[in-house]
Amino acid sequence: MSKRLPVSISDILKAHSRVKQNVHHTPVVTNSTFDDRFGRKFYFKCENLQKTGSFKARGALNAVTKLCEEDKTVSGVVTHSSGNHGQALAWAAKTMGLKCAVIAPNNSPAVKLEAIKGYGADVVLCEPTPTARQQTCDKVSKERGYYFVPPYDHYDVIAGQGTMAVEFLEQVPQLDAILVPTSGGGMVSGIAIAGKSIKPDLKVFIVEPQGKDVERCLQAGDRLWPNPPRFLNTIADGIRLQQLGHITWPIILELVEKQVFSVTNDEIIEGMKFAFERMKLVVEAASGAGIAAAMSDKMCNLDDNIKHVGVILCGGNTDIHHLPWYQ
Amino acid sequence: MSKRLPVSISDILKAHSRVKQNVHHTPVVTNSTFDDRFGRKFYFKCENLQKTGSFKARGALNAVTKLCEEDKTVSGVVTHSSGNHGQALAWAAKTMGLKCAVIAPNNSPAVKLEAIKGYGADVVLCEPTPTARQQTCDKVSKERGYYFVPPYDHYDVIAGQGTMAVEFLEQVPQLDAILVPTSGGGMVSGIAIAGKSIKPDLKVFIVEPQGKDVERCLQAGDRLWPNPPRFLNTIADGIRLQQLGHITWPIILELVEKQVFSVTNDEIIEGMKFAFERMKLVVEAASGAGIAAAMSDKMCNLDDNIKHVGVILCGGNTDIHHLPWYQ
To answer: For the segment A197-219, what is each residue's pLDDT rounded down to a tens digit?
Structure first.
């Protein structure tokens, strides 16, 4: 692996010792019906059972803890995210005794804002565009003197997410590949760095909602997305951002497979239903995307040498009063 | 503990070695929000993640495996249960290469019958009363020469369910008490025998749907229920049988606490919702009853020395297209 990468396995192992007292060592579940139907062995890493209901607790806690180690005067942290990173940062700040502000679009579901407030954070509303949320975040950061902890484009966040792969390969050393539902790319870059350091032959695949177009970018070796960044029209709200990040992109380009799993809303719903009905797990649509990739024709046609496939069930924060199969 | 009991810890440990290759070693999850709100440490044993979606896989597999050890000519097994024991026995028979017939009430949801057929068993329909199902079961058993494996009143089934407590006390040795949603009493008697053999101070509590009236029977030391046996009007279909069994009763009377947790439908729904929303687990109403007991005023007023409380999430077989909070 290239030495140019800004996050190393050593950073990820340090992150692991930093966070492991406070995050859950999430279980890996298997399902023989699924394996029989899709012809390989699948292992589901249950980050839906993680603190705050998603893997984001890992990256947020690593960033906040490291910040406290490095600057004893830090009083608070801020981010823009109505979703899992917002909840995770609010929780991480509370865990470390810091204040926290979360910038959220003014069309966020009330249940998400209540969850953030439940961890003691301030919610500051803004217009529902990627640009407005960054501007509001910068303003709050400046006015209150809070450190900005971005959702994915941050070395300590990436290192924190990488701890998942350290655990997963301890739990299932025989993994040949991991499927990673991807938004800005913090999780997939952390997993790729850790996973390929521990097991160089491991293949890390991106799972995306249709329209994200990562395969075309990876094959061109270029960030071809339109600007300003935009949200995709997908039910998987946790992974609706079209662009990969600027910090995550070079890591992904170097380490992640060029073949990408692209899934539709209907496929995502089928994935979610399998989790609820057969695995007895509440998962959000982004996790459903991972399951849908495992169920896909593309997976079915993949190299037979890929026998043991990990799937990240990245989160479980779905509104149980508005499940997609009731609509 | 009395030596009169027909199932011993040794039977349960033998059952454990018999089944552990084929059943899941289910995880125990904790939830700090729950603990903060209800003032003790709670540990949830996830039998909803068990093979076939409920703890019943343990008892059924122990009974079928022991049968195969003892009678090399056995060709099949039969039971009456539209629900979890039916699925579990079908699965256990398939696992051991036996035939299986399941007697089910003719008003059973199609989804349940499909699940049983999915494990390769024959479904035989009957009138929806406890008496009709036993008669039909006896008839099929006689005609086909299948062994009858009852849902709870059977030593090997009880021993199989007891394996759950062996695991649970290995996972959480500090447990002071376990809350057990109870129907015929196979699970609670197995858990009580294993649990109190391993840790004599452990308290085992029954959780029941309102109207089961176990506390009055236990305090009278007598089976006061009306005959013929009837079903309670509860959404917790897995535990709707009013009477405890004839074999389970003396075990329960000797080992289980006289104080019983009785929960209403509304409380059960709140318990289920907590599991779905906060624990990210799909549970059936009977598991919701266990959570509801943990949330109850009775639990709140229990002896402060009971600090570490186990809750059995006994199953996850609920129809996700008819969740109770959508009705």
So the answer is: 999 999 999 999 999 999 999 99
Average pLDDT estimate for A240-251: 96
Which residue from B minimizes the CA distance to A314? Answer: B280
The residue range of the domain holding A159 is 9-55+154-326
Gap between the Cα atoms of A278 and A297, Å rounded: 21
Active-site annotation holder among A45, A56, A66, A212: A56
Q: Does B320 sit within 8 Å of A277, measured CB to CB? A: yes
Give the strand order in the sheet containing A147-148. Answer: A122-126, A99-105, A76-80, A147-148
φ, ψ dihedrals at B240, nearest 5°: -90, -10
Q: How far is CA A124 from CA A53, A56, A79, A108, B295, in A?
A: 22, 20, 10, 11, 33
- For B280, nearest residue in chain A (alpha carbons): A282
Active site residue B54: no
Q: How far is A33 from chain B (nearest CA, A)?
A: 10
Percentage of residues in chain B having pLDDT higher than 70: 99
Is A75 one of the annotated active-site residues of the chain?
Answer: no
Mutant choice from B119, B280, B321 vs A, greatest count of A C-beta within 10 A: B280
- Is A223 found in the same domain as A295? yes
Domain with A231 in it: what CATH number?
A: 3.40.50.1100
Query: Domains in chain A: how many in total?
Result: 2
Q: What are the DSSP calls for B183-240, one per residue? A: SSSHHHHHHHHHHHHH-TT-EEEEEEETT--HHHHHHHTS----SS--B-S-S-GGG-
Q: How confident is the model at residue B112 (pLDDT cuts 50, 70, 90)?
A: confident
pLDDT at A201: 98
Establish if A276 touches chain B: CB-CB under 8 angstroms. yes
Domain C-terminal end among B113, B148, B183 = B148
Tokens representing A42? 């699948």
Distance CA B37, CA B300 (A): 10
- In chain A, the percentage of residues whose pLDDT exceeds 70 is 99
Are residues B179 and B227 both part of a single domain?
yes
Same domain, residue pair B282 and B133: no
Six-digit token string for A290:
């991972």
Q: Is residue A91 within 8 Å of residue A189, measured between CB atoms?
A: no
Which of residues B82, B113, B148 is at a domain's end? B148
In a domain, A4, yes or no: no
B3 falls within a domain: no
